[in-house]
Amino acid sequence: TKSGTSRSVFISFRYPMFPHDQKSLGRDWTTPWENLQRCCWNRHISSCMRWPGHYSRAPYPYFSSRHFSLHWRPPCLFESRTPFQYHNWRPDSLSHTSLIHLSSYIMNSEGDEPSSKRRKHQGTIQRHWEYICNHSKDKTKILEDKNVDSTCEDSDTKFDFSVMSYNILSQDLLEDNSHLYRHCRRPVLHWSFRFPNILKEIKHFDADVLCLQEVQEDHYGAEIRPSLESLGYHCEYKMRTGRKPDGCAICFKHSKFSLLSVNPVEFYRRDVPLLDRDNVGLVLLLQPKLPSAASPVICVANTHLLYNPRRGDIKLTQLAMLLAEISSVAHQKDGSFCPIVMCGDFNSVPGSPLYSFIKEGKLNYEGLAIGKVSGQEQSSRGQRILSIPIWPPNLGISQNCVYEVQQLPKVEKTDSDLTETELDKTEVLVTAEKLSSHLQHHFSLSSVYSHYFPDTGIPEVTTCHSRSAITVDYIFYSAAKEDVAGQPGAEVALVGGLKLLARLSLLTEQDLWTVNGLPNENNSSDHLPLLAKFRLEL
Question: Which residues form the Endonuclease/exonuclease/phosphatase domain (predicted)?
Fold first, then answer.
């Protein structure tokens, strides 16, 4: 178990692991890493290394085999060959960038948790509001003040609202992937324990808009929707199209918004072999309840993209379908787009091509391996390159991520009147357009979170379980013009645009393991809720 502040690591073993004759080395001794790895080979330690002190762009870096000192400080050395319950050792000489986590995954019984991640601490995760102060176009200051009133205010010139994005962990998916939760005590994994905690979080943060993922259908109908409606929310839900009985929900406060349209998006397409997965999205058009007659509208989108790290082609196509629906819903009569908030579990890490495409509005995917799209895997060995184009023409979505309009050509000449040369030229033009490897979208989207702590460079994480701790959840929004000056796509016309006022702070992997990772006694999903406060200038 790792402490949130300590630079040392305590590791517990239940059975003797080192050769018996090493007891003659005395209390303080050193051994090369290779010796430790050999001794622990059958304990699966070498496959469970984490490096939380320093991160590259890779989402889940592994320790390399290097020599370092291990100072052994057991209560007593191996005086007999009988198993002992605990021996603690610490690598005191490791640098601050070399914290490791070892996991033996040895259990006494089916219900026991791994000894190296056994709960050592009871407590709650400490998160605070970070207030964003834009002093100029070039400088943004983050203020941390736990005493500042966090309520949103409305007036004749502004409309403030808050948005939460939260993957609440479907119970069926939890049970189907129980290997991800070996570190948890079994009682905290029961839905009867988890749902009250999740509802308590939602009540506490009291967001005006909720974007929830992994909402299980039976739980939604029996408990989630009635509970949220009793809190003043109107709920819309879209279940996945396949056998998995979960989906996405968008819920909003009656007191803040009126519903203008509901637009579900199904990523499964029977006529497109590429799109054989059952993920979905949901897009709502909301109107703030304001005294003024001509109130603006806000487009809110929620999705949960495919997990499979090696199917970046499907992920990008699903994203393009969602963006096309958003474009259709948010498009206004004057050609501009209303403010947009896009939330969800995108199963992609910061800095990945998919993430960059969302933020920058463009992506040249020529030569890109399908496993590199989401950044979840470091190696692209044996992976094929994305085809050009990624999706077939019959999907009906252009490379600009908008629905293609079937326009009938002007009847000046019939096909029979075209010469063979003219026909050849037409085919060449169509082929050249279809073979473009450049994707674009017309929104100017920013991320609520910066994904790295500025003082240390350590990544923020939004999900943490036995296998990984990374960021895959996001709140993207169409920023006000002064917030996106100089960014790609800033020239896109926006009505108003949104100003980020505050965000609920995220945590590091090391922070989360001080409370035994996720889920735990107080946080009942393997994801953290994301929360932001926005202002719409009227």
Answer: 164-484
3-state SS assignment for residue 107: coil
Whether the CB-CB separation of 215 and 247 falls below 8 Å is answered with yes
Query: Domain residues for 230?
Result: 157-405+436-482+492-537
Min mean pLDDT across 59-63, 173-177, 252-256 is at 59-63
Helix 353-360 vs helix 312-330: angle between axes, to the nearest 10 degrees?
20
What is the DSSP secondary-structure string of 207-273?
A: -SEEEEEEEEHHHIIIIIHHHHHHTTEEEEEEE-SSS--EEEEEEEETTTEEEEEEEEEE---TT-T
The tens digit of pLDDT for each residue in 491-523 reads 333 445 899 999 999 999 999 999 999 999 999
Q: Is residue 217 part of a domain?
A: yes
Q: Are strands 280-288 and 257-266 parallel, antiparallel or unpaired?
A: antiparallel
CA-wise closest residue to 210 among 183, 235, 241, 185: 235
User: Considering its fold, how many domains does the chain have in total?
Assistant: 1
Judged by DSSP in three states, 336 sits in: coil
> Taking Cα atoms as reference points, which of 90, 74, 85, 68 lies closest to residue 22?
74
Which domain CATH number covers 237? 3.60.10.10
- Report the C-alpha gap between 14 and 118 in whole angstroms: 12
Distance of CA 273 to the CA centre of its chain: 26
State the Cα–Cα distance between residues 162 and 146, nearest whole angstrom: 17
Is residue 438 within 8 Å of 389, Cβ to Cβ? no
Quickly count helices (H) and strands (E) in the chain.
Answer: 9, 18
75 by Cβ neighbours in 10 Å (0-12 / 13-18 / 19+) ranks as exposed
- Residue 533 CA to its chain's centroid (Å): 19
By CB neighbour count within 10 A (0-12 exposed, 13-18 middle, 19+ buried), where does 432 fall? Answer: exposed
pLDDT 10s digits, 131-184: 997 643 344 566 665 455 555 666 778 999 999 999 999 999 999 999 999 999
The sign one gets for the Cα dihedral 372, 467, 126, 201 is positive
